Hints:
Chain A is of the alpha/beta class. Chain A contains 10 helices and 13 strands. Chain A has helices spanning 12-22, 77-86, 103-110, 127-134, 145-159, 189-192, 207-219, 252-263, 280-283, 312-326; strands at 2-7, 27-33, 67-70, 90-93, 122-124, 139-141, 169-174, 197-198, 226-231, 238-245, 269-271, 289-295, 301-308. In chain A, helix 5 packs parallel to helix 7 (207-219).
Amino acid sequence: MIKAGVLGATGFAGNELVDILLRHPEVEIAFLSSASYAGKRYCDTCRSTFKMTLVTPEAVPYANADIVFLCLPHGASSAYAKLAIEAGACCIDLSADFRLRDLSIYETWYGQHQAPELLSQAVYGLTEVYRDSLVGAKLVANPGCYPTGPLLALIPWLKAGLIKSKHLIIDAKSGTSGAGAKPSEKTHFMNVHENFSAYNIGRLHRHVPEIEQELAGAAEQDIQIVFSPHLLPITRGILSNIYVTAIDGTSEQDLRASWETTYADEPFITLCAAGKLPELADVARTNACHMALTPAGREGEFIVTTAIDNLVKGASGQAVQNMNVMFGLEETLALTGGKA
Amino acid sequence: MIKAGVLGATGFAGNELVDILLRHPEVEIAFLSSASYAGKRYCDTCRSTFKMTLVTPEAVPYANADIVFLCLPHGASSAYAKLAIEAGACCIDLSADFRLRDLSIYETWYGQHQAPELLSQAVYGLTEVYRDSLVGAKLVANPGCYPTGPLLALIPWLKAGLIKSKHLIIDAKSGTSGAGAKPSEKTHFMNVHENFSAYNIGRLHRHVPEIEQELAGAAEQDIQIVFSPHLLPITRGILSNIYVTAIDGTSEQDLRASWETTYADEPFITLCAAGKLPELADVARTNACHMALTPAGREGEFIVTTAIDNLVKGASGQAVQNMNVMFGLEETLALTGGKA
Amino acid sequence: MIKAGVLGATGFAGNELVDILLRHPEVEIAFLSSASYAGKRYCDTCRSTFKMTLVTPEAVPYANADIVFLCLPHGASSAYAKLAIEAGACCIDLSADFRLRDLSIYETWYGQHQAPELLSQAVYGLTEVYRDSLVGAKLVANPGCYPTGPLLALIPWLKAGLIKSKHLIIDAKSGTSGAGAKPSEKTHFMNVHENFSAYNIGRLHRHVPEIEQELAGAAEQDIQIVFSPHLLPITRGILSNIYVTAIDGTSEQDLRASWETTYADEPFITLCAAGKLPELADVARTNACHMALTPAGREGEFIVTTAIDNLVKGASGQAVQNMNVMFGLEETLALTGGKA
Amino acid sequence: MIKAGVLGATGFAGNELVDILLRHPEVEIAFLSSASYAGKRYCDTCRSTFKMTLVTPEAVPYANADIVFLCLPHGASSAYAKLAIEAGACCIDLSADFRLRDLSIYETWYGQHQAPELLSQAVYGLTEVYRDSLVGAKLVANPGCYPTGPLLALIPWLKAGLIKSKHLIIDAKSGTSGAGAKPSEKTHFMNVHENFSAYNIGRLHRHVPEIEQELAGAAEQDIQIVFSPHLLPITRGILSNIYVTAIDGTSEQDLRASWETTYADEPFITLCAAGKLPELADVARTNACHMALTPAGREGEFIVTTAIDNLVKGASGQAVQNMNVMFGLEETLALTGGKA
């Protein structure tokens, strides 16, 4: 059995992660931490029946764990990653702290980094793309919720040189769990229900540099995206439309074939049949990423639509998928409990 | 007092229209029709306390009305427009039947037209743009819900030659009232709530030719848009992001100045301050159109965000605004009853 | 024109009240206060386009107002009522501070009272019941949101001796605006949406003594109710089921006749036809109270169902209705702007 | 492996059941039927990835199944139960057809019965109460969604003579999945969202005779309940308040002790600590029934609050729980996949 610890266990991603780990046949939970609720039983702090008592992040017995999941705020996470790794545990960080390889870009967006010396060993945990590097990794930077779908859709095409790196536009809509558990005016029921709005549009959202880093890596050239996040009046799910221009001579069939070749054997990627578009209800509470390709109606232009559950494939599900790969387990373990 | 009749009074647009007309100080309702509910009192067929008995569209006493509003399905509307006009009434058609000036384009999208001889006299009722032509008009084609916001945003810029006519992308999200009152799997609560999806994306939605016609008219050249409609789990409102490329040398300030000049005195257009984005809750149950301009973060590219209530500015509110103009009344009459 | 001031103008009840006052033909707003947002324009603090600058409650020029509305927290309100009245203004308090005539009961539930000397002159503002006392009143205690519907339903029957004063049970469900604008775990979208729960059931909710006071007054004997409030995942509305046992010999027809006699000419009371039950969507954004009477299926037992909009008839609409009566205006002024 | 067939597999209960069976380690699905979608793949008719082709109920190979689940409309179910049993399969009927032991009561509420000769062998599948009779049963009548929670709460007390059989009132609120998958005005998103209403209150709902039968059996005397069902704007869950009067001398502690004795070892029953009330979000997608006991604040009166997921414990989860008992399997198999 793998002994797993979770820091920041009472937030939405933490809670989702604990649920998944509890049904994982090869995992036992070593500890759960919470700065706010230390000393309380887990079941008394969030929607769970699990009775383990929470400890402070400072009191965590790292040496008892084979793997430590960090569900902490950006900036706060890296210091604990260091502690975990020094104690001999592997670490999957669900914050942004190890996603950006370029320290200066990180510090532009997030402020000072607490463990820059670890950056070079962090593997970006977009499982389908980085699977080989994940085997035996000590430190994994779990991807952001918004990046996951668009990256899975675009990376194969950029690697194959099928689409232009300019003009990419991502119009993305996220459920409210993405805004976190902290009560605020933004997340008050009265401001979300029967409402819909965009925020931080353009190149202002913190997931922009993460998306651009990974797209640039695939394309082997710099890429600037336009990115428009929105807040949906639902609990979970991200649906993204990506507006893409193909290289001259690239057909719809070429793009579709690229996806099919890349993802034929992937258990969590579903390519929608032509004419069918993903719905968030189809991916809710699953680790699936559904992708559709639609001609935009203008020569050479296409619309890609991706759908994931932001708390599962966009956070805790993908984290467990990464853990399964790191430890040589069946990749789908504990991740098929949602819809049939 | 203006005597107004409403055909198709029990659908969502019809019901919203009756509400507005009942609080209009210069209007009395002459008749209400419904094919399904003729013989019943209005208050027994939809959310209203108005007790007038519904008649069939065939039994309507057109000669009793100064103006007839048609809230009928596309294709069914034009035949009744003809009857109303022959009886001497003015007519505002909320269907698509008179929106497209080119008969062949109409018939490609909607099938055979029942009154093509009237097409040439129909005025497209985007009030802020066609106000002069509306005064004294006999037949007004009320704009579609999706077109209204984007057209109001883009027409001034295309007329002034400030933006490129290529590359326009509209990513639009509509509340469920836009799908109509007829029960279907698509509108079943279980399929809308906690769900979100796109439909008819590319150049497949019937509002595409309407938007393209009006943009082309403003730009004096053909325009092809990419248009992505979505269904939101809320009752009312349309939020659209429009991705725009400026002509070389056009600055954010130029675009903003164009809007300010055009809309300075418009009672229903609100230009958001830089950095502020519209929310659907701000326009719900009002005749307002909120517009924001945001730099996209790439040289020369911008994001326009527009918000309207699809049942008010996108349908019945704009219809009454048009009636007010046609009859020389104060344009805001009966249209300021929503939020302060 | 009546000059009206509003203290606590940026909360949900305050915002609703400002909306209503702005469309009132006989009112002009003299001032708006907010402890949190003083110095800001009203339109920058909540969903409104009204540009008046907010002042602190301390800086309010009471002498400029004919009437002051208090939308302040329980306990905080009474001190300002005193200031307003001393300055010569009338006052309608939307908090609980003047609802309970017995000081000791008030202090049991709410703590020390700041202006007990005013209690004796306060009129309980359930308009339909206390209309005569409201004419010329200086201080009105606007009823609580939960009490309004059940009191309107039961008071006529208790006055006429038609129902037993024992066994009354009220099972009530309220939209989330009733929980106030302050962000909290309870009002976080993630805890309200797709959820439903009861709270403070039994005789624990602060509206219990208010309901019991008014029922006892009508029955001329002490009454204990069982009261079960719930939080609904909607923005506005309260639907209550009241379980009632009739005095032997009282028929359904007797009960219905009592309502009809009492409420025949009331503009805001709708008695549902037999077999029809109220829905919250029918009363949303109106000052109406819908009531239905249904045989419970056991000898002598009945179910009363009442529906109101908690922010309108349950707060700000009833406050304006009271103001209209106090100042001798048409009682429905500014209160018919919702549904037809 | 147990071979299971499902008739009516594409409705909400059927879909939920297929999900559960697919994750059941001891079950393989033998066939799925649908009158409407026969010939299509399951995954093309509802939210599932399961690719089995649907057959008509007439073409079902009953002999291939060890157990047949009937998710068919009331009245239509019994004829197929007969076919299944004659072919040698066990049968769990999720409709009402075998719940009422008295044929005349059944026919009063549902019309003519298609297989009355089977009534006497049907076991009422409220697992915790009828577990012993379920072992080896051939025909199980799965309880209705509304009855499940209140019966589990009240039966122990009635058996022990702790509460009065008169005055029982159940005020129950159900998510919209309870209204079925068929599109209708009632289930249109626009009529459910931001709405709330009661229906069939008194003794008019078809679940009344079912609840009364089981309560009367426990009390060994006739019982009449008052029952008020409501439609909640959420997808799943039933929260019920039950108003109870204790026998003189029965204390809160007596009632609580009765529950604790009865349910100490039940895996799916959670007794809430004093002062804590169940929330629907806590039971969503689980087979749990949460129960709370609260003093009503009047001498000898109590409020019981129960919460279940209507599609799981109120339908398909309980059906699988029953199957597990019938076949001697671990009772929790496939039923612990929801929340931790």
